[in-house]
Structures are given as structure tokens and as C-alpha cells.
Amino acid sequence: MTLMRTFLGAAATLALGATAALAEPAVIFDLGGKFDKSFNEAAFNGAERWATETGGKYLEIEMQSEAQREQALRRFAETGANPIITTGFAMADPVAEVAPDYPDTKFVNIDGFLPEIPPNVQMIVFEEHQGSYLVGMLAAMKSANGTVGFVGGMDIPLIRHFACGYAQGAKAVNPDISIIANMTGTTPAAWNNPVKGGELAQAQIAQGADVIYAAAGGTGVGVLQAAADADILSIGVDSNQNHLHPGKVLTSMLKRVDVAVYKSMIAGDALETGSMQVLGLADDGVGYAVDENNEALLSEEMVAAAEGAKAKIIAGELDVVSYYANDSCPVLDF
Amino acid sequence: MDYATLLQVADSTVRLSVPLLLACLAGLYSERAGIFDIGLEGKMLMAAFTSAALAAVSGSVWIGLLAGIASSMLLAGLHGLASITFRGNQLISGVAINFLASGLTVVIAQAWFEQGGRTPSLQGAARFEPITLPLAETLQGVPVFGPLYAELISGQTALAYVGFAMVPLTWWLLFRTRFGLRLRAVGEAPEAVDTAGVSVIRMRFAAVAIAGVLCGLAGAYLATALQAGFVREMTAGRGFIALAALIFAKWRPWYALSATLLFGLLQAVALRFQNIDIGTFTVPVQFMDALPYILTVVILAGFVGKAIPPRAGGEPYVKER
């Protein structure tokens, strides 16, 4: 009996402790997994930065299947986590579903789109087409064959959005350039199929591509590997992937998911919700990576041209057409 | 389509077929001996992980290969223990192996390398490099055959040659040796083999072990020859495609070769020609991706005739008392 009481007491203390630590944020990583060296890893880095700087703790889970999404959201909301940060377009609908049931909890979704945003949800999207435009320019300037490649992950509007910006950038430098764009698949498994990514890259190389841009999560690792094996250049995505094959990765299209996650966590309870935040070149939300691994690959003229275009885009003088605008790309057919 | 393109597609076909072929032959040994094996996928995955992990740590791809084979055989042994010794359901044991491999690989990889369930990238001697066969350079100038020899026949990795050599070897072993006769008999009429004084249990374990070795080769090929490292779930359903190919091939080695080459070809064509223009309309890439599965259904339904599995397949052997 005494033992029983001790246990109950301990349980009560734990329960109290949980309520006291109310504002613990939570991060839900999408199917690619938090170490995909790309999108989710950027989110993870942002969360880790917050944790080291503030000494705080956060809850996390990696999605293993489609069915877990809503369940994970509800669990975190029940635990009292706030804000709950989700990555990936596929989390948008579950968030819209769950958010009204927990009006005191704030939800963040990165990359998703909702026609009507609930008052306690913050949507964060990036202008990937602008960043992709810049790396497309760099690719076209570096290409000796006049052919550049693009390997996407799952065939969704978001990835076409990447491809479209890339194609526009490449065409801006060389109107005659040919762009080979392939998608890995139509299911979420396409984010994690490096063997197929590598084969797609080899097929593109056989068709003359000498710079290949991979926007494919874990699949991109295979693309970058195949490019490095064939001694041509590749372009990484989301996180800085230049270090994966030093001297073989031309640059990486950065999407500062880490900054978005970090800022949301810093804001905590005070996070603004009910709106859609768009991060572009002007906010340093997207960009291209230059570090010691690729410095030698980028000539001064290339960087100058890219910086020039960046300034023009920010000033509004240069308009990169978004794939979302009318669900089609002016320079690329899918 | 010019000759060079044709060769590139053929080259891609070979690369994509080898893991299917090895896994298909693994299934062939096992099922010919009366043990259904849907754990091909899991064994390949485990071997892919272990070979990449050991190759990364030791820096030698051969150590990785041996470790990969050992890990795959360990799972094969588990399958044997459950379904032969304890006479459990072979399908359930196979499913269990798939789940076990899928979970274990990621957990061990994460604990070991802390890179989120992947192994470090392999470089240099930790990978199988393409082998250039003798005379490849000299024959380059010969029309038609020269490029064929240099691009397709030469320049594959060691495991690819092993995979193709396994086909005649399997045929010879199964259809020309006493061991093969007994192995096939164990899958058709185990009681007859038992009456002849040969241990059914031992024969079945031998078959399952051979399947383990072949799955080990297939997994190591994926992780250390095609790619440079392990990524979770990197087998991506190849074990199941190999099973379909096995039924397609009516459990025969040469047919297995043609079935897996056909599946490899379809995948290679889908990769190279994403949208195919046929005059007035375009065949979407999604259709090309689905084609292997459609073909399996269509051909099985009408063209290959009846695919009859080994008669004692799926049933644990119980000695009469």
C-alpha cells in the first residue's frame, strides 16, 4: 500500500511537472526523416540552434507513414506543446483539421498551402523559384555542353515550382540551353530512393547534362553521388550540401527552413498566427551557398551575374514566374 | 534512337537487373526446396546496411561484402529456425524478417553513425569499382561490337558478373547434380526424400542458407556498387519485384534471367524516356513506372501459361509416425 502511494505520488508530481513546463515547443519532421541532409535536416538544425542558445527542450517526432500525421499532432497538442512546428506540404491539411480543436495551441506549417488559415495557424512558405532561378543561372554559365539537368523528388507542384525557377534562370543566361527535367516518382517513397535518383542522373548525363540540380530530399544524395562519380557538377538543395562532394557540387539552393523554425521557437507563445508568411530573396529566406568547398568553382563573373539578378529580383525589376501562378511553366513542360 | 542510346539503356538495364536477378535466384533456391520466402526484401536491406557499414568502418569493400552476406544469412537462419525447425508459418516468418530488417537497420545505423539511419559515404576501396575487361580499349574501334563490348560487357562491377554467372551455375546445380535433384525433390515430395534416407530438414536449411548468400550479394550490390552507402529502405520494394519475377519465371533459372532483365529494361526505359511521344499522344511517365506491374498481371493471366509452384511449398515437413 505504501509502495502504491509512493507510485501515485510520483505520478502526480510528474503530471504537475508537465503542466508547469507548458511552453515546450514541438517539431514534427516529415517522411524524409530529420537527417535527410536537406529539407528536414534544415528544420532540425534550426530547432537545435534554439535548444543550444536558450537551453530549452523541445519534443519531436519523425513521421513514418501517412496515417500518423493527425495522431502526432493531437498527441503533442494534448501534451501541452506550444508552438507545434510541422514541416512539409503534406502536414497542412492535418494541421487545418486539428488546429480548431486546440484553440490555445499555436501551429506552424512550413511549405504547405491552405485556402483558409485558422486563427491559430501560421503558414510559412518560401519563394523557391527565386533561389532556383539564381542556381539555374550559375548552372547555365558553368555548363559547357549547353545542357543542364533537374531531378525532382515526388512530382508535386512544389517541386515543379523549383524546376520552373531553375529553367527560367538557365534560359536567362543561355536562351538555347536544353533542360532535362525528371521526377523520381509520384509517391512519398520518391523522397528516399537514391538508387533511382542515381540512375536518373546517369540517364541525364548520357543525354549531355553536365550540371544537375537535385530537389529530391534523400533521393538527391544518389543524384549528387552519380554526378560526382561521372565527374560532372551537381547542385544541392535546402541545406548546404556543398560538403558532400567537395569540388563536385557547384552550389546549393538554400532554403532557410532553419531560420524559420528558429524564429518560430524564439517567438514561442507570442508567435503571430492566422497568416501566411512568404520568405524570399529579400528576407534571405532563399539563396545560394558559397563556402570553401565550392569557391573555386564559381568565377567572379558568375557570382556578379547572380548577385545582379538577385538585386533586380528584390527591387522588383525582374519577375521570376511562379509555377503556382497558373499551374504551368512558361519555359518547361512536365 | 541511335546505337549509343541503345547501349546506355542496355547498360542501365543491366545495373537495375542485377539486384533483382540475385534476389530472384535466392527465392528460387528457397522455394524450390519448399520454403516460401517473402523475406527477400528484408535480407537484402540488412545486407545493404551491414555491407555499407563494415565497408565504411574497415575501408575495404570485401570485408563489407562478407559482413553483408553473414548478416543476410543470419536472417535466413532465423527464417529457417522459425519455419523449418519450429514449423511456423513461412509467410508470417518472412513478413517478420522484413519488419525486423526495416527497423533494425535504421536503429543500428543511427546509434552507430549518428547520421539519421544512413551510413557515411563510401569512397575508394570501400566501393566496388567498375572492372574494365581486357581489350576493351583496343576493340573500341570495331564497329557495332566494339562499343558493345567496351560499354556494356566491360565496365560492370564484380558483383554484376557474379550475378550473371549464378544463372548457369544455378541451372547446373539444380538440374545436373545429386544435390539439386534432392533439393527439388524436397520441394515436391519431401516424404519421398525422407524415405530415401536424406534429411529433409538439412536440405531445406541448405537451400535457405544459399538464399541468404544470394540476398547478401544483392544487398551489397545496391549499397556498395550502385550507390555509395546505405540509406533507409533503400531496397525500395526490389525484393517483391524479384518475387513477381520468380513466379513469372516459373521457378526456373534461365527464365529468371529473362524475367529480371525484362523488369530491368522496363525500369531503364522509364528512366531514360520519361514521356514517350507516339505520334499524336504522349505516354506519361507514370504509365511507364507502372508497366512492370501491369505486365506481371497481364502476362501471368494469359501468356506464360500456368505457373505451378513447387507442390510442397509453404508446408512444414512432419515425419509420419
UniProtKB/TrEMBL annotation, chain A:
Residues 27-320 form the ABC transporter substrate-binding protein PnrA-like domain. Belongs to the BMP lipoprotein family. Its main location: membrane. It is a lipid-anchor. The keyword Signal applies. One of its GO terms (cellular component) is plasma membrane. Keywords: Cell membrane, Lipoprotein, Membrane, Signal. Transmembrane segments: none annotated. Residues 1-23 form the signal peptide. Pfam families: Bmp. The lineage of its organism: Bacteria, Pseudomonadati, Pseudomonadota, Alphaproteobacteria, Rhodobacterales. It is found in: Cell membrane. This is Basic membrane lipoprotein.
TrEMBL record, chain B:
It is found in: Cell membrane. It holds the Pfam family BPD_transp_2. GO terms for cellular component: plasma membrane. It is a multi-pass membrane protein. CDD domains: TM_PBP1_transp_TpRbsC_like. One of its GO terms (molecular function) is transmembrane transporter activity. The chain crosses the membrane at residues 12-29, 49-70, 91-113, 158-175, 205-224, 254-270, 290-309. Its main location: membrane. Keywords: Cell membrane, Membrane, Transmembrane, Transmembrane helix. The keyword Cell division does not apply. PANTHER family: GUANOSINE ABC TRANSPORTER PERMEASE PROTEIN NUPQ, SUGAR ABC TRANSPORTER INTEGRAL MEMBRANE PROTEIN-RELATED. This is Sugar ABC transporter permease. It comes from Actibacterium atlanticum.
